[in-house]
Amino acid sequence: QVQLTESGPGLVHPSETLSLTCTVSGFSLTGYSVYWVRQPSGKGLEWMGRMRYNGDTSYNSALKSRLSISRDTSKNQVFLKMNSLQTDDTGTYYCTRGFAYWGQGTLVTVSS
Amino acid sequence: DVVLTQTPPTLSATIGQSVSISCRSSQSLLHSNGNTYLHWLLQRPGQSPQLLIYSVSRLESGVPNRFSGSGSGTDFTLKISGVEAEDLGVYYCVQGTHAPWTFGGGTKLELK
Questions:
Q1: Are residues B100 and A59, on separate chains, in Cβ contact within 8 Å?
Q2: C-alpha distances in Å from residue B44, one per residue of A48, B47, B62, B107
Q3: Strand partners, B80
Q4: pLDDT tens digits for range B41-50
Q5: How far apart are CA A96 and CA A36, in angstroms?
Q6: How do B89-95 and B38-43 pair as beta strands?
Q7: Using one digit for the tens of pLDDT, what is the confidence trace for B63-102?
Q8: Mutation site, B23, B101, B108, interface A, largest A CB count within 10 A
Q9: What radius of gyration, in Å, describes the C-alpha atoms of chain B?
Q10: Are B90 and B64 in contact (CB under 8 A)?
Q11: Which of B37, B40, B48 lies closest to A96 in space, CA to CA?
């Protein structure tokens, strides 16, 4: 069955870079797009960007200068890297396949 | 970017009551390919979002048929015909017609 699992550090210091991995199973990354979505604690959802099935990427314009999404199809993994983290980047980060399948989310806290 | 405005922000209902949530877009969500990529999600407390309705009115597999979606262009509605206790949580509309994808601010459904 389709599964997505996010992983990464729970704590990141201000101004540092966040690196997250979304490991997928039950489908091929060359057949489906994967999105990253985040949710500040107690707030709404924000679309961050996507890795398309063909390897193309697109990003939320508000995050574009800090964000990079890549993949390793041989490992069934999609990566998110975001630099210059600040405290308002604290929240839960999800990967999702077309909004139909979601990971459990990973909590990222930005704090010194 | 497309702005999605959801109303009301909070909705109080009794079990069995029918309710509606509105999602209004700042521009038409009709794609040049003839499809309209407006979807509805439910996020129950402590859980990842779940897709309920995709492309305005198509019920996701496994979702009860008390959920229905309608609308076109810039105005869309999610209706729940007979609220059940498991329906409580926050509802989001999301558009995938114009990049970057964007979410509505959410509507919290509570028990009266």
A1: yes
A2: 21, 5, 16, 12
A3: B19, B67
A4: 999 999 999 9
A5: 6
A6: antiparallel
A7: 999 999 999 999 999 999 999 999 999 999 999 999 999 9
A8: B101
A9: 13
A10: no
A11: B48
Closest by alpha carbon to B24, among B83, B80, B75, B92?
Answer: B75
Bridge partner list, B59: B53
Got the DSSP string for A3-57? Answer: EEEEE--SEE-TTS-EEEEEEEESS-TTTS-EEEEEE-TTS--EEEEEE-TTS-E
Euclidean distance between CA atoms A33 and A54, whole angstroms: 8
Q: How far is A14 from chain B (nearest CA, A)?
A: 26
CA distance B29 to B100: 13
CA angle, B54 as apex, B48 and B62 as ends, to 5°?
65
Give B112's pLDDT tier (boundaries 50, 70, 90).
Answer: confident
Q: What is the DSSP letter of B100?
A: S
Look at A58 and B102 and tell me if their CB atoms are within 8 Å. Answer: no
Amino acid at B74: T
Closest C-alpha to A82, from A4, A25, A9, A3: A9
Tokens of A35: 């999105």
Cα B97 to Cα B48: distance, rounded to the nearest angstrom? 23
